[in-house]
Amino acid sequence: MVACSLACWRCRWLLPLLLGLAIIMGIIALAGRGWLESESGPYVHQASLWESCTRGEQDLNWNCESLMDYGWGRAAAATYLVGFVILVICFALAVIAFSIEILRFNFVRGIGGLLFVVAAFQIIGLVIYPVKFTEEIPLMGANMFSWAYGFGWASTVVVIGCAFFFCCLPNWEDEVLGNIKPTYYYSSPDRAPYLN
Is residue 181 in a domain? Predict the structure, then answer.
């Protein structure tokens, strides 16, 4: 493993910290109104996971329509939200697992398995949303999937990376717990005359 990326006991909080970062990005994605936005001015369309808002070019007020009226809107929101809830549970389990002096590595591998489930739910929600949105909602002008949608994908990528680390961590059990003596490499002056 990379130096200190979970190969030492002091670095054990790196994975829960990354899960916390994924939670923050998930909150931004769930609350953000930037899932879809107009690409350039005049800004006449913006959407979140929950609603789609439009306005005329000269109008200052947004007219919003709930995406929960559509089956695909409920499906996208539900799958992303279920993934987020499981992510929060995994974060709590990771904090508990790394707080215990005697780390239970099978427990850690189970957290990794749950994180793959989180990633699957989030990916389903993140794929349903743009496909069905562009099919069923009339778009005004040039639009792009924007920053909040990007935070949703960033959270998913972090979750996938953490899932691999949680699943592979038991392979380095002795290194993490400090049960292996360090190996020192040195060369004698006879073997390396260029050092003189």
Answer: no
Give the count of domains, the chain: 1
What was the pLDDT predicted at 2? 45
Name the percent of the chain lying above pLDDT 90. 34
Q: What is the DSSP string of the chain?
A: --TTSSSSGGGGGHHHHHHHHHHHHHHHHHH-S-SEEESSSS--EEE-SSEEEE--SS--S-EEEEGGGSHHHHHHHHHHHHHHHHHHHHHHHHHHHHHSSS--HHHHHHHHHHHHHHHHHHHHHHHHHHHHHHHHS---SSEEE-HHHHHHHHHHHHHHHHHHHHHHGGGGHHHHHT-SPPP-----TTT-GGG-
Record the tokens describing residue 154, joined without a space.
């960033």
Residue 38 lies in a domain: yes
Residue 53, φ and ψ in degrees, nearest 5: -120, 135
* pLDDT, position 21: 95
Q: Residue 154's domain is classified under what CATH number? A: 1.20.140.150
State the residue range of the domain holding 79.
19-169
Q: Give a yes or no: residue 32 inside a domain.
A: yes
Examine residue 190 and state whether it is found in any structural domain, yes or no: no
